[in-house]
Amino acid sequence: MTKKQKKMLWRIIIAAVLMIALHFAVEAFGDRVHEPVWFFLYLIPYLTIGYDILLKAGKGIKNRQVFDENFLMAVATIGAIAIALINKSGDYTEAIAVMLFYQIGELFQSYAVGKSRKNISALMDIRPDYANVEVDGELEQVDPDEVEIGTVITVKPGEKIPIDGVVVEGVSTLDTSALTGESIPREVRPDDEVISGCINLDGLLRLRTTKEFGESTVSKILDMVENATSKKSRSEAFISRFARIYTPAVCISALALAVLPPLFFLIRGQAPDWGDWVYRALTFLVISCPCALVISIPLSFFAGIGGASREGVLVKGSNYLEALSKAQTVAFDKTGTMTKGVFEVNGIHHSSMDNEKLLELTAHAEIFSTHPIARSIQKAYLEGMLFREDGEPVEKKDDLSGRKLDRERVSDVKEIGGNGITAIVDGMHLAAGNTRLMDSLGVQYINCHEVGTIVHVAIDGKYAGHLLISDVIKPTAKEAIRALHDAGVTKTVMLTGDAKNVGEAVAQAIGIDEVRAELLPGDKVTAVEELLAAKPERSVLAFVGDGINDAPVLTRADLGIAMGALGSDAAIEAADVVLMDDDPKKIALAIRIAKKCMHIVNENIIFAIGVKLICLVLGAAGVANMWLAIFADVGVMVLAVLNAIRALFTKNLRA
């Protein structure tokens, strides 16, 4: 509890004790003490508990922002005191009780909001305090803002990685849970990229920074979370407009309730009870206070965004959280989104020699190439990949001693753009590439019946077989599509620049409904516009991508979702939602979180307005007294705040 909250608690206790003591004193000595004495005695607990409300109401009037909850409470309680003074009852308990219970509700709301903010801050406590830079042989702690790109920094066990970079020395495991929501540590070694905000668990690491602190992952995440509340949802905007119209309306209604019925009785020749109607009007004012809506709706979105952040899903604003809840069509990029974007040798077919020998020769032919396909062949050889007789991969060799690429075995390397490569390996003339390369060399090749990138190999002018190279589907991709349909998504589409047969094979493997292949970046935008035109009214189309070429599509869709761990900066900047661990299964989780949040928002709106309307009618009819008014105001606010905090908890939403 903060100092301010403790101070308020003491004010509540003191005012309550004084109010109770005075109530019993009036019962015992009411006739023996003059009325003005009771009035001044009761002012002590009233001002103790309500002086700040009166000051805020005065400031509001001074600044011409009259109609708020402070004004309503001030008018209602001062009016109740005035009625007791006129009636000479000597008992001002009701007025103090209204202010007392209002402050109890405010204290509870302050504590609840503070606790939820503290929980979210703890979950997102990733801001590094310093970076270790070596100066004159000694490690010196400097502000991360002062570290330039290319600086080598040291991260000790237990410290946060302050800036994005590449490991140049050391092996360790990283705790990425604050960023991704995943509890499984990630192992890193030299040449691995690491992102700021992760915690180094065991080994000493030396990193070469690749970004300035302001452009690092940790800074972008904190900026997203801090600015999320500035982008209001339609529900929040509605509540703001509602409060601006509602509060003056109830003040006018209360004034009418105090004046018009007595005037009506006067016209009919009857003597009206002015005190009774004024009391009803004051009760009406207390009941009408819109605290529950004004407080609980933003708190619901704040808690929903915080809960999503804990799961590794960053939502840039409550308007995007609301849009997520309405997503019915989800379009995906393929490479890097539903697949790993990492090519692997998945088969060697029609080989005229031992499969591993063909892989070895081809890897040496590709020794100088940096193309992703060439690197996948080199990697398969270096990692000791083994194949069955039918060419399907089975395992990796345990003993890799002596397994290396020997440049001395290779000569006369010629790279033929768009076709492949030729080289002399171990004295043999080897050609590796596509069908166009084989045709140019007059080599008769055998087509592959499987889907993927095919590298045909010819040795000394004779066909030696081909390597099947495929992008690897993410292990959670199929489950992600199933989870999306379970979460209410009615249509899934893949938009890819790959060949049609490759796109269709991936889509079929993971269960995507529709495929549009061989698309350029501009074609993807056109495809999204067509999907937008065809989607159900008031539903949302979300696009999920990771590459720099996806940025225009992410912007054009109703809702852009980017892969944050491996995604490009342009994609992350353009997106409205960022998945920090690149797991497509998190999309369905984000939708379920958004739907839970919106369900809570709607519950609070219906509950708060419904109870208010019932109590307002009862108050106007004279059935409700100040005590019911207190429940209608403070009680509803407390219940709505408790309900709003439920949006913070997401464990039961995980698939």
Walk me through the structure.
With 655 residues, the protein is of the alpha+beta class. The chain has four domains: 1-124; 131-223, Calcium-transporting ATPase, cytoplasmic transduction domain A, CATH 2.70.150.10; 224-338 and 474-655, HAD superfamily/HAD-like (Rossmann fold), CATH 3.40.50; 341-471, Calcium-transporting ATPase, cytoplasmic domain N, CATH 3.40.1110.10. The protein has 20 helices and 24 strands. The chain has a seven-stranded mixed beta sheet, sandwiched between helices. Strands 2-1-3-9-4-7 form a six-stranded antiparallel beta sheet, with no helix packed on it. α4 runs parallel beside α9, α7 runs antiparallel to α9 and α9 packs antiparallel against α19 (585-621).
Short description:
This protein is of the alpha+beta class and 655 residues long. It is built from 20 helices and 24 strands. Helix 9 (291-310) runs antiparallel to helix 19 (585-621), helix 9 (291-310) runs parallel beside helix 20 and helix 14 packs parallel to helix 19.
Low-pLDDT ranges: none
State the CATH architecture of the largest domain. 3-Layer(aba) Sandwich
Question: What composes the largest sheet?
Answer: 7 strands, mixed
Number of helices: 20
Give the strand order, joined by hyphens, for the main sheet. 10-24-23-22-11-20-21
How are the elements arranged and paired?
Blueprint: H1 3-29, H2 35-62, H3 69-87, H4 93-123, E1 131-135, E2 138-142, E3 152-155, E4 165-169, E5 172-175, H5 177-180, E6 186-188, E7 193-194, E8 199-200, E9 205-209, H6 217-227, H7 234-267, H8 274-288, H9 291-310, E10 313-315, H10 318-325, E11 327-332, E12 339-349, H11 355-365, H12 372-382, E13 385-387, E14 393-396, E15 410-416, E16 420-425, E17 428-433, H13 435-441, E18 453-459, E19 462-473, H14 477-486, E20 491-495, H15 500-510, E21 514-516, H16 521-534, E22 540-545, H17 551-556, E23 559-563, H18 569-574, E24 577-579, H19 585-621, H20 626-645
Parallel strand pairs: 11-20, 11-22, 20-21, 22-23, 23-24
Antiparallel strand pairs: 1-2, 1-3, 3-9, 4-7, 4-9, 5-6, 5-8, 10-24, 12-19, 13-14, 15-16, 16-17, 17-18, 18-19
